């Protein structure tokens, strides 16, 4: 077989999927493991969302609503945006892909940070665009360097805010200053996947920037149902942007991109405020408790306003990750991100957090890290 594969496609390194939980348990001979590696919601989805999704199953022979009318209108009420300012995606990943499809051609540039969400750069590579990657400065987006890297070929800037994996936040003041350094032709994308965990007074008022764009670039925000709403498995995300940009993205969107159970589940999740607040409050309490416990063990927990945080374990993170696996606790080594002594953990339930601390203490002692 002879294939003529474009270089930009051949050079892509596939996204490395994690092993299924049951496979890890079989491989390591463990049971009842806990996963604190993917920033998922440990409390699970709202029972209302589960019920609503289940009730759609008898209608799977029908196509879903191609406009996601009811969900879009509910999101407009939830966020304060107008329905025409919202576009839904199969996860916020798909909205990222829409943006790259709509704005990037071969030779165009897209500015991102490192480390941050890997899929920004992969979508650009697929389009034949050029990734301009700016290293974080002290674990924060280097806004000055990003602004300086913009050229006449720059089409998009992606900023995950809060950043993943460092959990750092761009302030409202710094973002406003940053915008005024940029040409109006650039589109600035704020990926706010974890914004629900950020205190309201710390959040950037994206809607005002979208509706009053004079003298600044267009701003787009991305949101997801995967984190605070616990619907990672249904893959529902959305973007909020000027209606003219949303109209462009609808032109590159596949019809029926949000499936029937996903639309119903997400719509019901928005009505369960009690479950949503349980997640937000439980995350904040767990984050504070875990930070105290980790510090007491001799490690260095880093500040966070999300449902995860970094820990300097004072030794090789990958070795600790392996040791933790044998305890049935799955965390994420940050070695591949350029932080060889750091792990990232998701804040779990109270029982999961306690189990993590016990396993961490044992592994630190076994490895003689502290």
Automatic annotation (TrEMBL):
Cofactor: pyridoxal 5'-phosphate
Alphabetized PROSITE patterns for the sequence: AA_TRANSFER_CLASS_2 (PS00599)
Keyword Transferase carried by entry: yes
InterPro entries xref list: Aminotrans_II_pyridoxalP_BS, Aminotransferase_I/II_large, HisP_aminotrans, HistidinolP_aminotransfase, PyrdxlP-dep_Trfase, PyrdxlP-dep_Trfase_major, PyrdxlP-dep_Trfase_small
Gene Ontology MF term list: histidinol-phosphate transaminase activity; pyridoxal phosphate binding
GO biological process assignments: L-histidine biosynthetic process
Gene3D superfamilies for this protein: Aspartate Aminotransferase, domain 1, Type I PLP-dependent aspartate aminotransferase-like (Major domain)
Catalytic activity: L-histidinol phosphate + 2-oxoglutarate = 3-(imidazol-4-yl)-2-oxopropyl phosphate + L-glutamate
Domain Aminotransferase class I/classII large: 32-360
Positions carrying N6-(pyridoxal phosphate)lysine: 227
One Pfam family in the UniProt entry: Aminotran_1_2
E.C. designation(s): 2.6.1.9
Signal sequence range: none
Domain of life of the native organism: Bacteria
Keywords noted in UniProt: Amino-acid biosynthesis, Aminotransferase, Histidine biosynthesis, Pyridoxal phosphate, Transferase
Group of enzyme by EC: transferase
CDD domains to which the protein is assigned, alphabetical: AAT_like
Family listed: Belongs to the class-II pyridoxal-phosphate-dependent aminotransferase family. Histidinol-phosphate aminotransferase subfamily.
Subunit and interaction comment: Homodimer.
Family matches, as HAMAP family: HisC_aminotrans_2 (MF_01023)
Protein name: Histidinol-phosphate aminotransferase
Lineage of source species: Bacteria, Pseudomonadati, Thermodesulfobacteriota, Desulfobulbia, Desulfobulbales
């Amino acid at each position: 077989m002879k294939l003529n594969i474009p270089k930009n496609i051949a050079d892509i390194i596939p996204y490395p999927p994690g092993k299924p939980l049951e496979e890890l348990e079989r491989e390591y001979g463990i049971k009842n493991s806990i996963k604190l590696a993917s920033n998922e919601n440990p409390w699970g989805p709202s029972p209302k969302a589960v019920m609503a999704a289940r009730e759609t199953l008898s209608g799977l022979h029908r196509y879903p609503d191609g406009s996601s009318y009811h969900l879009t209108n509910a999101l407009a009420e939830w966020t304060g945006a107008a329905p025409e300012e919202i576009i839904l995606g199969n996860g916020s990943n798909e909205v990222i892909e829409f943006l790259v499809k709509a704005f990037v051609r071969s030779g165009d540039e897209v500015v991102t940070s490192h480390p941050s969400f890997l899929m920004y750069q992969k979508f650009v590579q697929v389009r034949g665009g050029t990734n301009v990657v700016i290293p974080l400065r002290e674990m924060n987006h280097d806004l000055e360097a990003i602004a300086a890297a913009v050229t006449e070929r720059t089409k998009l800037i992606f900023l995950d805010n809060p950043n993943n994996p460092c959990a750092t936040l761009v302030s409202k003041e710094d973002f406003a200053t940053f915008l005024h350094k940029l040409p109006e032709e650039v589109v600035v994308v704020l990926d706010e996947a974890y914004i629900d965990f950020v205190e309201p007074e710390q959040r950037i008022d994206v809607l005002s920037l979208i509706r009053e764009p004079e003298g600044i670039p267009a701003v787009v925000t991305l949101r997801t149902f995967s984190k605070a709403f616990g619907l990672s498995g249904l893959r529902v995300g959305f973007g909020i942007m000027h209606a003219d940009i949303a109209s462009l993205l609808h032109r590159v969107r596949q019809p029926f991109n949000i499936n029937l159970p996903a639309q119903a589940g997400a719509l019901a999740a928005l009505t369960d405020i009690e479950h949503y607040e349980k997640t937000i409050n439980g995350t904040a309490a767990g984050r504070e408790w875990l930070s105290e416990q980790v510090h007491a063990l001799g490690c260095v927990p880093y500040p966070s306003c999300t449902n995860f945080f970094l820990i300097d374990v004072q030794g090789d993170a990958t070795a600790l990750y392996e040791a933790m696996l044998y305890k049935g606790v799955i965390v994420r080594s940050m070695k591949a991100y350029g932080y060889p002594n750091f792990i990232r953990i998701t804040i779990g339930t109270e029982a999961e957090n306690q189990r993590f601390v016990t396993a961490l203490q044992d592994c630190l002692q076994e490895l003689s890290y502290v």
